[in-house]
Write a structure and sequence with these properties.
Elements: E1 9-13, E2 38-47, E3 50-59, E4 67-73, H1 84-92, E5 96-100, E6 112-114, E7 127-133, E8 137-138, H2 140-154, E9 160-170, H3 172-183, E10 187-193, H4 206-220, E11 240-241, H5 243-246, E12 262-268, H6 280-286, E13 291-296, H7 309-324
Parallel strand pairs: 1-7, 4-5, 4-9, 8-11, 9-10, 10-12, 12-13
Antiparallel strand pairs: 2-3, 3-5, 6-7
Helix pairs in contact: 2-3
């Protein structure tokens, strides 16, 4: 809706059933007390006019005024608060670690969809419009835009050494970090953990293609709205996909577009959600810069968060130490 980008909106937000009313202040981040050796604060980041909630972690006794920086991004249906243990470990290893919620997830605001006509405006005066907040949908193009805007934002942080920025992404965000590195060559290193790197499955079969294009047409015609929060359309994963956006999302084909970025791929030997050969292994083969792939034996996809969590985290820290602390 182009007119929205030119208007200052005073919004009467109409939420879907069971969603909380919008407060005057931003959504509250779940309280957190860091370890004694780690500093912590929250921040807000603007991404296409939507506020993203972020958290920063860094050592209380940093070795320099500027720190190598790691941006961590959560997977499908996750939220930033689940990454605090990883962020603390990066901070204790000497990094400025930044976590954030994608738009419509966790403590971040969601994009606003007008539910009625938007009054005409010259762009200088505020207008009133009824709107619904879009929450808990999975849109890879919106999410990668959010990640790119976090990279822009962190360049303005006094603690950040802008010449040493790395990205850590898990599951669906394992693809996002490859995408971001291909688009923004200021990214020097990434860790892509159990990554899903190709969403073109939405048109891979006649049935999937029919659903994807039918939904896209109905949405463009105004007959179909956006999914409600909490919907599960893909297995047990929370968050419905915006399928027409996924047609254009295949970072597996972009790994060779970041020759100056060191890429580590961590995969599960018994990955059950997709075939590693079509995702991380293919991306690793295409990558042109420093690269490595680690297969964690005996685990399925979610094992990286459970029995293999320390193994994967230690491997990530070693990789960033090698590539960002040279």
């Amino acid at each position: 809706m182009p007119r929205l980008s030119h208007c200052t909106l005073f919004l009467i937000v109409l939420f879907v059933a069971a969603a909380p009313a919008l407060a005057a202040s931003p959504r509250k981040v779940t309280p957190f007390t860091p370890p004694d050796d780690v500093n912590y604060r929250t921040a807000n980041i603007q991404s296409e006019g939507t506020r993203l909630s972020a958290e920063l972690f860094w050592p209380k006794k940093p070795k320099s005024e500027k720190l190598p920086t790691i941006i961590l991004s959560h997977g499908w249906g996750g939220q930033a608060s689940l990454l605090r243990a990883d962020a603390v470990a990066f901070a204790q290893a000497g990094y400025l670690a930044v976590t954030f919620d994608y738009r419509g997830w966790g403590a971040s605001d969601g994009r606003l969809i007008p539910t009625g006509e938007v009054p005409e405006s010259d762009g200088n005066q505020p207008v009133q419009v009824a709107a619904r907040e879009l929450r808990e949908v999975v849109d890879p193009l919106d999410q990668t835009t959010d990640l790119l805007n976090v990279i822009h934002w962190v360049h303005g942080e006094p603690l950040c050494d802008t010449s040493r920025i790395g990205l850590w992404g898990t599951s669906y965000s394992g693809g996002h970090v490859v995408y971001a590195a291909a688009v923004d060559h200021r990214v020097k290193a990434i860790v892509s953990q159990v990554p899903a790197l190709d969403s073109r499955w939405v048109t891979a079969t006649a049935g999937e293609q029919k659903k994807t294009f039918t939904d896209a047409t109905r949405r463009a015609q105004g007959e179909l709205g956006y999914p409600l929060p909490g919907v599960k359309e893909v297995g047990n994963l929370k968050g419905a996909p915006i399928r027409e956006k996924m047609i254009r999302y295949a970072p597996v084909d972009m790994a060779d577009q970041a020759p100056g970025c060191a890429m580590l791929f961590i995969i599960a030997e018994k990955e059950e959600l997709f075939d590693n050969r079509d995702h991380a292994i293919k991306a690793h083969d295409r990558a042109k810069g420093p690269k490595k792939i680690i297969t964690v034996p005996g685990i399925t996809h979610y094992g990286v968060y459970l029995q293999a969590h320390k193994t994967c985290l230690d491997a990530a820290i070693r990789w960033f130490d090698e590539e960002l602390k040279k």
